[in-house]
Specification:
Length: 78
Amino acid sequence: MLGRNLKILRKKNNLSQEDLAGSLSVSRQAVCLWETGERTPKVSMLMSVSKIFGVSLDQIVNGKLVSQDNRPMRKKLT
């Protein structure tokens, strides 16, 4: 869910992975790995992401964002 939320935020703000990576001083590959869920960014990095996009950590991590098709995202029940 975290990776999907990062990707949605990035796309809603018309940023490429490279653009976001540059803003965070990380590689484009790092952003790609976060978005695919292969790696998880450190909390300090998530705090930077929240500042860039003007959203809370809770919104990034828990999925309280609006999806690309403007439907509210919902947490999956396991």
